[in-house]
Amino acid sequence: MGGHSGDSLAGIRYMLQYAFSAPTFRQFWQRWNPLFSYYLLFFGYANLKRALPRILAVPITFSLSGSVHDLAVGVLVGKWQLLFTGVFAGFGIWVMLEEWLGIRLPAGTDRWRWLYHLGLMALILFSGHWVRAMV
Asked: Which terminus of the chain, N or C, has fewer Cβ atoms within 10 Å?
């Protein structure tokens, strides 16, 4: 049994390294949970893209992901809160801004990539708490 937990930790380390070393925030999310990303792409984004421009379809797809997180947390704590829906919409907005601005971190900057992704998530999460407190 001991060997399995080491294998699991190695897999988690690899997943974290692979996701956080992504050159863009969009690729970070594609790498973070590839199965869920594919599901959202296929069932969410692809359908939204038929009716809406990409600039709207991406943040709405992220919002759908956030609502799934809100639902899971709501079931666990017994109280519905719309925190992740808005935060994930912010992630989607940043993905579009990053694409529009042409932001792509160069190769060999893994530490900066980690800071970039963690910093963005913290900033957007903090902004979500701030906006929610004002509403």
From this structure: N
